[in-house]
Amino acid sequence: MRVLLTGGSGQIGTALLEAAGRDFHIIAPTRSQMDLRRPATLSAAFEVCPDVVVNAGAYTAVDAAEDDPRTAFAVNCGGPGLLASVCAAHGIPIIQLSTDYVFDGFKAGAYREDDEPNPLSVYGRTKLEGEEAVRRAQPRHIILRTSWVYSPHGRNFIKAILRRALAREPLCVVDDQRGCPTAAADVARAIVAILRRLRSDGEIPWGTYHYAGAGEATWCDVARATVALAEPMLRGRVDVVPISSRDFAARARRPANSVLDCRHIVRTFDVDRVPWTQSLARVVTTIMEEMRSTAIP
Fold first, then answer.
1. What predicted TM-score, i.e. pTM, was given to this entire model?
2. HSE-up of 275 (CA within 13 Å, CB side)?
3. CB 16, CB 151: distance < 8 Å
4. Which of 2, 25, 28, 75 has a CA positioned 20 to 30 A from the CA of residue 17?
């Protein structure tokens, strides 16, 4: 099976390239080779004759999107809509990555796929409109919402916490936003499970699914767990101080609760959910090993 992957240099894209191994032929063009804001680049990309497209590319700078909505909408909405249209024209299904930030966080329990979205931020709105554009353009789609993604690659919360802890900087972390920390490698495994089912059956139950790490936490919980795992490398004790969202200067509003109910994807594709603490330990170990030989980027 030939898989055309956008966002191959991002956290989930990198993890998918590693997880796919020899089971799938992944074609991951660079942004200069395939830019969803430049339709002319799509024709050449589709010359590889993919069997499925995975769109892991996105504008993910949540706060920056508040000041640059035009670019955020172009990448997160216009791009996926265009890509899904080309997929439909070629008879190719698409897997579109989305986010828990499509919800407002006012629900008491975990969000199901059929709960009404109501994003609080520009980023959330662009991702929701990207979902809707994909649904309109190509009925043979999987929209996969995930949350709080981290990995040893790129920029993310875990690496930021480790940088600051090593520099002995104060760690004041929001403790009133709750979600599901998710390793990019675990999202990649879920995508591979979907791809295997598609390769085997040809057709699968299309639609929207949630996948996130098992368990829930606040950002402060995650920071404390990260510091505890990295303690052997830290020079002395590093305290993590809980603060409220009101005390944290952020341009974009985040949902207070973005916990995702993932039972639908578990039942449909027999995907395992890994406890976030277990996956975090693996990622922190990898980052610590890299930091022993080079400065963290």
1. 0.94
2. 4
3. no
4. 75
Instruction: Name the DSSP letter for residue 232.
Output: G
Residues acting as catalytic residues: 123
Pairing assessment for the beta strands 217-218 and 178-179 based on DSSP bridges: antiparallel
User: Residue 192 corresponds to which tokens in the numbers above?
Assistant: 């591979």
Quick check: helix, strand or coil at residue 15?
Answer: helix
Look at residues 251, 246, 262 and name the one whose alpha carbon lies nearest to residue 65: 251
- Domain spans in the chain, listed from the N-terminal domain onward: 2-155+181-214+258-275
Q: Which two tokens stand for residue 277?
A: 């603490």
The pLDDT value recorded for residue 243 is: 94
51-66 per-position pLDDT tens digit: 999 999 999 999 999 9
Q: How confident is the model at residue 250 (pLDDT cuts 50, 70, 90)?
A: confident
In angstroms, rounded to a whole number, what is the distance separating the alpha carbons of residues 116 and 129?
13
Q: Please answer whether residues 206 and 140 qualify as being in contact, where contact means their C-beta atoms are separated by less than 8 angstroms.
A: yes
What is the torsional sign of CA 176, 249, 222, 7? positive
Token pair for 247 = 């005390």
CA distances from 172 to 30, 126, 148, 224, 232 (A): 37, 29, 18, 11, 21
The answer to whether the CB of 263 falls within 8 A of the CB of 194 is no
Cα 14 from chain centre: 12
Q: Looking at the domain covering 2-155+181-214+258-275, what would its CATH class be?
A: alpha beta
